[in-house]
Amino acid sequence: MLFGLVIDIIFVKIKNKLMKRIIIPLLFTIVSYSQTDVQNVRVIKDDSQVTELVNTLGKNEIKLDVIDLLFQPALSLSYERISDSYSSFGGDVFINFNNNNSSASWSDRFTISPFYRFYFLNKKDFGGAGFFVELFSKFSFADHTVEYVSGLYDESVSPYYEFVDESYFDIGLGVGLGRKWINKKGITFEIMLGIGRYLLGETGGVDDVPLGVDEVFYNNRPEVTFKGGLSIGKRF
């Protein structure tokens, strides 16, 4: 019995030492790691972090559409103001230097396009980035070809056709979808495609037909308008 009692005392001492030197520190480490991990997850998903990053990079952005610059003699510049992490507003200016207005898609000579965006972004992003939906309007100054036809109802003369290039103004409304990326230096890359419809259309009536003209046809004047491209910009 005495020998067994000594063995029990030795075992209890060894157990206490193991608890103090190995098990308790191990449990303390596990608990600390778990708390740190929970805190990190909470910080990443906190809206205040996104707001801080937005303020650090700035809320203003200037963009250049590289498609218009490379594939046609035109210039398209955009300004965007970040309202918060989820919305922004701004405007586009388009100047077409192409003299060929034979295609409806090239008829715009100068446009101003205000817009408003709703962003759907990842919480760890920089705000004003990610997938977005854009509502835009378009104020267009464009050219089209007007065809004047005379002599249609006079059998004694042959019909006479005259084609005249004229300028016009129209207003369009549309919606677009896109995606924007931004790095830590505030450089942005954006892809966007939108479609809309012009509201004014052909404004000519019977009273607008010149004297001696039987019919007037408006050629190359689009009813649908498109907006989009690939843009590179800088936030400041």
Structural write-up:
The protein is an alpha+beta fold and 236 residues long. The protein has two domains: 44 residues; 136 residues, Beta Barrel (Porin), CATH 2.40.160. It is built from three helices and nine strands. An eight-stranded antiparallel β-barrel has the order 1-2-3-4-5-6-7-9. The radius of gyration is 34 Å and the shape is elongated. About 6% of the residues have low confidence.
Strand order of the largest sheet: 1-2-3-4-5-6-7-9
End-to-end gap = 84 Å
Number of strands: 9
Instruction: Evaluate the radius of gyration.
Output: 34 Å
For the record, the count of structural domains works out to 2
Described by strand count, sense and barrel closure, the largest sheet is: 8 strands, antiparallel, barrel
Could you say what the CATH architecture of the largest domain is? Beta Barrel
Helix content: 25-40%
CATH topology of the largest domain: Porin
Query: What is the multimeric organization of the chains shown?
Result: single chain
What is the H/E order?
Answer: HHEHEEEEEEEE
Mean residue pLDDT: 76
**Poorly predicted regions:** 36-45, 101-105
How many separate helices? 3
